[in-house]
Amino acid sequence: MSASEHEIRTVFPAGHRIFIEGEKGDVAFIIERGRVEIAFERNGRSVRVAILGQGEIFGEMALIDDRPRSATATALVPTEVVIVRREQIRSSLKHSDSTVRLLLEVLLGRFRAMQGRLDWMATDGEAPGAATRDLRDKATESHTEAIDRLKFQREIEHAIETGAFRLQLQPIVSLKDGNVEGFEALVRWDHAERGAIPPSQFIQLAETADLVQGIDRWVVGRVIDILARLQREHRRPAGEKPTYIAVNLSGHSIADDRVIAEIKHGLREVGVDPKRLRLEITEGALIDNPKKVSEVLDDLSSVGVRAGIDDFGTGYSSLAYLVGFAIRTLKIDRAFVQSMLSNDNSQEIVRAIIGMAHALGIEVVAEGVESLEQLHALWRMECECIQGFLLSRPLEVETAVTVARSGPMLSTGPVLLGRY
Ligand code: C2E
Ligand code: CA
Ligand code: CA
């Protein structure tokens, strides 16, 4: 850790108790010179954990959680320390990259694991009590978790560097004129050892580990490049809407100002019409953090990027709830589309969703359309667009670019027929 103008330094005399086991604290210490003993009391005895010297840090758990000090720190000789406050760390962590955050967690995890072991030793070899065992298990678990996460982050970074992520684009087709209005970008991971991993197996994991932003940033960058190409190579007649690509943005990415700044900067730098980029946000992300999502959507819609709600109907949000958000599209979850014909309730829900969306000026896309019967039913309900295996599976980028250029995918009329 480097010195900064905000740091506070203190010299403790030999024998001074810097902090005592059981008391609360919200600062950590870095030793500039001197020596500090870390010890805790067990059965009336003081058990020494470590003697620390120059450059070492102690009391760091207080920076993360509110638990009381788990040991006593005593200066063994006159010792100069730099005091790090919890607030200071919180604000710099907020602005630091995830590696720094991870390292801190790993270090804490290790410390907790060590504590668990020491608790056991300090009981004079007796079997550890349930509480201690629990603490130790938790410590080891959080340690393993932190390491796993670090590995996972390296894998994601490695995948980005080596081009192991790949995009596929699935056409979204208008039921009015059969044209391909746009595509949804779907990420795939070609893992060197494990083969192709579908997003269902890694996106949620990446979200839990707060690492999904890296993937979403890669996808957005790649999509902006493809859009620039479509814009250059595929000019539609004046008055026709430009082909768009919709990107799935996780709630974590929406909350990350860097991701949003990159989207705006990327579009400007490459000169892509912002209308060509759309964002898909799940109901869950919206409900988890409505204020932030609302701010971000307002911000992006002011530059022309449209947003839509994904998987509509699976969460808890009502259409009324969406009124306050800059939402222009709604995607009906494929669960409804697929049960629509066999289940009257589903069909009524789909009809109601479409009707209400239209009343609010929101366009509807039905996803997961696999049969002509579903297509016809949606057409009758005046759903604007469909997406699904019936018309096309997700395509490799080159194929999608060709599809974008080759005119309608459906011939429209009283009877709609798929071209594929
Ligand atoms: P989603 O956003 O609901 O994407 C649609 C999923 O439905 C895709 O699965 C697509 O391949 C599949 N699908 C499309 N048409 C049909 C159909 O007719 N029948 C059936 N059974 N499935 C169909 P995929 O590609 O496996 O993606 C799964 C989920 O992973 C996505 O669900 C999305 O939530 C997430 N995801 C994919 N790419 C990204 C990404 O770049 N970023 C983020 N944050 N999430 C992503
Ligand atoms: Ca989606
Ligand atoms: Ca969806």
Quick structural overview:
With 420 residues, the chain is α/β, with parallel strands linked by helices.
Provide keyphrases for this structure.
43% helix; TIM Barrel; binds ligand C2E; 4-stranded antiparallel β-sheet; 3 domains; binds calcium ion; Jelly Rolls; alpha/beta
Characterise this structure:
With 420 residues, the protein is of the alpha/beta class. It has 3 domains: 1-94, Jelly Rolls (Sandwich), CATH 2.60.120; 96-162; 164-417, EAL domain (TIM Barrel, Alpha-Beta Barrel), CATH 3.20.20. The chain has 14 helices and 20 strands. The chain has helices spanning 86-95, 98-121, 130-162, 199-208, 212-233, 251-254, 257-270, 283-288, 290-303, 319-322, 334-339, 344-359, 372-380, 397-405; strands at residues 8-12, 17-19, 27-33, 36-42, 45-52, 57-58, 72-75, 79-85, 165-174, 180-191, 195-197, 244-248, 277-282, 306-312, 329-332, 363-367, 385-387, 395-396, 410-411, 417-418. An 8-stranded mixed β-barrel has the order 9-10-12-13-14-15-16-17, surrounded by 5 helices. The chain has a 4-stranded antiparallel β-sheet with strand order 1-8-3-6. The longest helix is centred in the middle third of the chain and has 33 residues, at 130-162. It is elongated and about 85 Å long. It starts with 7 loop residues before the first strand and ends with a strand. It binds ligand C2E and calcium ion (2 copies). Ligand C2E binds next to β10, α4, α5 and β14. Ligand C2E binds at residues 170, 186-187, 198-200, 203, 212, 215-216, 219, 248, 250, 280, 310-311, 334, 367-370, 387-389, 394.
